[in-house]
Amino acid sequence: MKRFVISFVLAFFSLTTGYSQYFSTGQEPASIRWRQINTKHFQLIYPEDYEEKAQQVAFVFEKVYAYGSKSLKHEPRKISIILHTHTVKSNGLVAWSPKRVELFTTPHQAIYAQDWLEQLAIHEFRHVVQMDKIQQELPDILPILFGEQAAAVAVGAYLPFWFIEGDAVVTETALSKAGRGRLPSFLMENKAQLLEKGAYSFNKASLGSYKDFVPNRYKFGYWMVGGTRQKFGSQVWENVISEIAKRPLSITPVDRVLKRETGMNQAGLYRSLFNDYQKEWSREVADIKIYKVKEITARQPFFTRYTQAYALNDSTWIALKESRVDLSRIVRLTSKSEELVTTPGAIFKESFSGRGNQLIWSERRPDIRWTHADRSVIVVYNSETNEKQVFEHENKLFSPTISPSFKQFAAIEVDHSNHYSLSIFDLQNGQLLQQFKLPGNPYLLTPCWDDSGNSLFFVTQSSEGKKLTSLDVMTGHSKVLMDGHFHEIRNPYFADDKLYFTGSFSGIDNIYQLDLNSKLTKQLSSVPFGADYPASIGGGLVFSNYNSDGFQLVQLHQNEMVNKELDSTIFKTYPLAEKLASQELGIPDFSEKEHAVFETKPYRKLAHLFNFHSWAPAYIDAAEEDVKPGVSLFSQNKLGTAETRLGYEYDWADETGKYIAGFKYSGWFPVFDAEVSYRKPSAHYWLIENTIDQESGAIIASDTTKQRFSWKELNIDASVYLPLQFSQGKYTQYVRPKIDYAYQNIAHTTDTPHEFYEGYYHSVTYQLYLQNMLRQAELDLRPRWGQALELTFRYGLKGGSDVGDLSAVQAYLFVPGFMQNHGTRFYYGYQKRNQGAAFTFGNIVRSPHGYKSFQNNEIYTLSADYAMPLAYPDWSLGRWIFLKRLRANFFYDYAHATGNLYSQEGQVAGTFSTDMQSIGVDLMGDGHFLRLLTPVSLGLRTAFLPKSQKAYFQLLFSVDFDSL
After folding, report:
1. Which of 116, 309, 402, 855 could cross-link 319 (Cys pair, CB 3.0–4.6 Å)?
2. Is there a contact between 230 and 222 (Cβ–Cβ < 8 Å)?
3. CB 428 within 8 A of CB 386
4. Taking a C-beta distance cutoff of 8 angstroms, is the pair 466, 460 a contact?
5. Which Gene3D superfamilies match (predicted)?
6. pLDDT tens track for 650-689
7. 3-state SS, one letter per residue, for 134-194
8. Of residues 484 and 626, which shows the higher confidence score?
9. Average model confidence (pLDDT) across the chain
10. For the whole model, what pTM was predicted?
């Protein structure tokens, strides 16, 4: 029961974001008009310019319904699907408070051999089945008490995230001819880790590590869920979900079912499965003739990827370097040196290339206001002159490549309706020159030029799989050079009338060569785990070679290559994937999707402003992370633009309650947020009651009694602000101007003392927040460089009681530490307050650690922090604790404050001036409790206060919901 209560609170708060009571992905521009399709099982909500594809998506989901439900033995209730078509993000998700599916419809450049929308439909629908099965099988009392969040809480408390994602990957593999279970680049990470470093502990394998690279929950989950189904049958996981739903107050429902079905708990099952995998993969690698390669880059202490290299000359290469300890960098490499060229921004997958000193890539730029209207820009960078050009197009552009003449570049273009084209642009000004659309609208991937600049080579991807294709830019004629069907083909590279590419035909990604004259295809590399990103110069081959520490750049000379002709009769199969497929109904037939016609109608935003989805017999304040007696009711509309919160909070001490109503609307350019609360608080005062002699009038006795009184309090707070994004390149830049109006009215009741304040005040606050931060690497504790500034002015309005005014400025400066992933932060705060006659505003600028906030007229604070990692222990205490990192934050604070001294009558009797200092350290541990995915930090703050010569101690605890 304790675990359930703790997990309930943690899981509930994991649904929150910085601006939302519940999880919201953001908003589309207000100008977008929406339509809807209602089928038997789904409601599709989509922009009106996506009508053609929306019909197909509706068809695909209806087809998937029976297939995706089978092995979990559950047919879910109707659910809404929201299509985000104006963003460059490629993703899908299922959320449950409120319940909906959100699809980001733009394909990325690294997708496997299946239509993107079909991939999303199969994978995300499986999540719908998981969640709805739990919701429907929960004891009736829980949905009655908590609404939709009951299922989210049960999942967050008990169902491992590796199962949630692994089961969906298993399903996408079993219900298609492709799927990530047949993708060697997806499978190789666990294989390399297991064979080179051995099996990690179950906690480390499932929760990750800062010390070592650990394959993510999708990959780990596939091997766990798939291996269990292969060995014990598909009913195991259906029974796990039913157990969680039917017995939500049990301690370890997953382990209970696994022990019953397999004889092992989660950790034991992991050890058993991965012991079998280790033996199987060791045999597979032993049967392969490995061709040795020459290393250009050495293995790094932390996981590092060198990819997408191209040659400057016989001995110098330019490559993209990605690391856990640093930002993504473009570097110049030789066998003996590495030199930084430049730092790109949020670069897209498979979207960097170059020719000579000209580099080109595609990166993401956020819209100034709308989360789902971000865009791609093309960046051209001259590595000799350091000149940079940025081109923006009305559509989305990916995977650019520069022509041999250095006059044009080609890129994959995607419009808001998912129409795909291969387009050519002027390299000097970014102007569109030519646009080529292929019959059937296949998706296009990773183009490259021939030496003449007359032909482009690329991969097409459709419901028929992947094909290597060429395009004559003079005639617009395209032809298929090689049909890979549902095997992986990617990243073609042209040199000497030959086309080099990555292929998965052997069951391991290797480099292949297609001779454009003889039409023969040969395997060139033979590596144990995976090869990718081929490039050639002088007949030799350079590519990225995978191992458990990342991708190394390696070289293979011509006389060291495999040179084995490709034989389609011995293509690798995937026994686990085929076994999983045999446990399902088969592969859904989507061939008629282009002929689908469903009735459509407008989706009116105003008519769907409210969507009450969850409630609780408690007052839950996500902003303050507080749960109190009372009642809560929550609404969030399906477009994520309107949030409503209603509640009643009961105070045991006052024996009174507070009514609260809040509303936030993010569908217009400014965001509006308002809250109204009404309460009847109480307090006490001491009353001296005298007994007077009737004859003499003398006091003959006195009795002091405690008197309770109450008053009525109405609070109104309304704000409007602009969350503006200006991020570009390696910096994130944010501006938020905000205006807030606050009103408070205090009225007497029959028992309120006459001397107690009665009246109202109202105030306005103007605030401006500015931020410029260098993007952080995964292991950075703080930004290595950045600035933040907050300006605040607050004053009372006329017509109410005098509350004075307050001005404040707060500034942060981030600079690098002495070592990698260390960080230094400086803080300056200044505040000036003019006291009001009735009330005064609270402090904005903070006091030094160890000092409580106090009333002052003027204060300035200076502080410096230094954060550093101490160790990455990866230490477990059973299932209870997994400690991933120890870190320290050293700090020094100084403040000077002045203010008024008051007499007992409340009159100003003088002034004071004081200095405050504190010096200390926070010692923190980062990890996980109870194998919950949400990271937690626990530690101790120790500070010394020189003025009082006293030590100060404070326990620290935080939960990192943003990492989910």
Report:
1. 309
2. no
3. no
4. yes
5. TolB, C-terminal domain
6. 988 777 899 999 999 999 999 999 999 999 988 877 766 7
7. HHHHCCCHHHHHHECHHHHHHHHHHCCHHHHHHHHHHHHHHCCCCCHHHCHHHHHHHHHHH
8. 484
9. 93
10. 0.94
Q: Are residues 186 and 180 in contact, defined by beta-carbon separation less than 8 angstroms?
A: yes
Q: What residues does 865 pair with on adjacent strands?
A: 825, 891
Tally of domains within the chain: 3
- C-alpha distances in angstroms, 362 versus 202, 543, 868? 38, 21, 33
Integer Rg of the chain from CA: 32
* Same domain, yes or no: 516 and 582: no
Cα gap 195→185, rounded to integer Å = 16
Regarding whether 473 and 330 lie in a shared domain, the answer is yes
CB atoms under 10 Å from CB of 98, counted, come to: 22
Residue whose C-alpha is closest to residue 659's, from 675, 644, 678? 678
161-167 average pLDDT score? 98
What is the edge-to-edge ordering of all strands in the sheet holding 432-436?
A: 396-402, 408-414, 420-426, 432-436
Q: Quick check: 646 pLDDT over 70?
A: yes
pLDDT above 80 (res 626): no
**Rounded Cα distance, 661 and 633, in Å:** 10
Domain final residue pick, 506, 531, 561: 561
- Residue 182 DSSP code: G
- Interhelix angle 235-246/161-174, rounded to 10 degrees, is 140
How far is 690 from 700, CA to CA, in rounded Å? 8
Q: Which residues contact 230 (CB under 8 A, 6 or more apart)?
A: 576, 579, 580
- How are beta strands 79-84 and 99-105 bridged, if at all? parallel
Give the CA diameter of the chain.
Answer: 130
Range of lowest pLDDT (518-522, 555-559, 900-904): 900-904
> Which pair of structure tokens corresponds to residue 210?
């800062």
Task: Let me know: does 472 contact 454? Beta carbons within 8 Å.
Answer: yes
Domain check: are 456 and 363 in the same one?
Answer: yes
d(Cα 448, Cα 456) in Å, to the nearest integer? 6
pLDDT digits (tens, 9 = 90+) for 458-487: 999 999 999 999 999 999 999 999 999 999
Instruction: Quote the CA–CA distance of 91 and 88 in Å, as a whole number.
Output: 10
CATH assignment at residue 43:
1.10.390
- Asked if residue 198 and residue 89 are part of one domain, the reply reads yes
Q: What is the rounded average pLDDT of the residues 541-557?
A: 97
Residue 260 sits in the same domain as residue 381: no
The verdict on residue 616 lying in a domain is: no
Output helix, strand, coil percentages for the chain, rounded to the nearest 5: 20, 45, 35
One domain for residues 165 and 243: yes
